[in-house]
Design goal:
The chain is mainly alpha-helical. The protein is built from eight helices and no strands.
């Protein structure tokens, strides 16, 4: 059976989302995040993360939709590990993608996750974080001075 020309191949549309498409995805994600149905939260956070990753420079969309305060709601809840991880990743991505231009703060954004890795109880992860931080400090002057 031949595919109808009225239904274009979805794989051909990947990477060509319009601003309107992104607005729709963000709005739906926010609706899901604000709902009382906690089963929707992780998938909504993933959609939001994908939208922000795939479409940098949407500062207005982030600010208009009040994404930052909404992410804070999930970042405060360290009990829900996946929601915490996704929301803090979104906040970190927004931070390093240009809403904050202070280089010292951006340097801190690079080192903070490594410092948290050092404090992990898993010795291999801790050593990996320690080595990565040492290498970063050695290679980047801005990191040394932050």
């Amino acid at each position: 059976m031949e595919e109808s020309t009225n239904h274009p191949d979805k794989t051909a549309q990947i990477g060509t989302k319009t601003v309107s498409d992104i607005q729709t995805i963000i709005k739906k994600s926010i609706d899901d995040l604000e709902s009382g149905n906690t089963n929707l939260h992780s998938s909504a956070l993933r959609r939001l993360l994908d939208s922000i990753l795939d479409h940098p420079g949407n500062k207005e969309l982030i600010l208009q939709n009040k994404i930052i305060p909404l992410m804070n709601k999930f970042a405060e809840n360290i009990i829900q590990n996946e929601e915490f991880a996704l929301s803090t990743t979104i906040l970190h991505l927004i931070e390093v993608r240009g809403l904050i231009e202070d280089k010292a703060i951006l340097a801190e954004a690079a080192t903070e996750p490594l410092i948290r890795m050092i404090h992990q109880s898993d010795e291999k992860i801790s050593k990996c974080g320690s080595k990565a931080l040492g290498d970063l400090i050695e290679e980047k002057e801005i990191i040394r001075h932050s």
